[in-house]
Amino acid sequence: MQKLFLTFFGVGLLKPAPGTWGSIAGAVIALPILFYIGDQTLFMASILLFLASIKIINDYESKTNEHDQSHIIIDEVAGVWLAMAISGASWTQIILSIAFFRLLDITKPSIIGRIDKNVKGGLGVMGDDMVAGLFAGLLSAISYKLITSF
């Protein structure tokens, strides 16, 4: 059951690039939440998913003796939800959120990389993606404002 949750119902088992598949699947699930319930609900859902996942990842890692396995993509789901909740609900903002999130999650600049390298367990797995989601949402919102202000 843990693996089913952590792989986001098996999406994390897709190859290549399970993180990208997880981000896309997460965005698809986020769309109806964002459009019909609102960005505040999606924001809270990302926080709840983040908090719930930490313990589940800790338990899973203690059983497998491996840290941040590639098939664990619940972190990408929570991160992309956060980015989309912060940025906004236009299609341009959604695409920018996903693109910036993947860029930051793959390259892991600055604090994102430090969290990835130095924070162990579930908090480390989830933390770098949540910070990437925060910055991706902000970059998306700023970019959208710049694009639409001309």
Rg over C-alpha atoms, rounded to the nearest angstrom: 15 Å
If helices are DSSP runs of H or I spanning 4 or more residues, what is the number of helices? 7
Strand content: under 5%
| Secondary-structure content class | mainly alpha
| Average residue pLDDT | 97
The N- and C-terminal alpha carbons lie at a distance of 50 Å
Principal-axis shape equals: globular
Low-confidence stretches: none
Number of strands: 0
Largest sheet, if any? none
Helix content: over 70%
Order of helical and strand elements: HHHHHHH
Outline the fold blueprint:
Elements: H1 2-6, H2 18-37, H3 39-64, H4 74-87, H5 91-107, H6 110-118, H7 121-148
Structure write-up:
With 150 residues, the protein is mainly alpha-helical. It has 7 helices and no strands. It has helices at residues 2-6, 18-37, 39-64, 74-87, 91-107, 110-118, 121-148. It is globular, with a radius of gyration of 15 Å. It starts with a helix and ends with a helix. The mean pLDDT is 97.
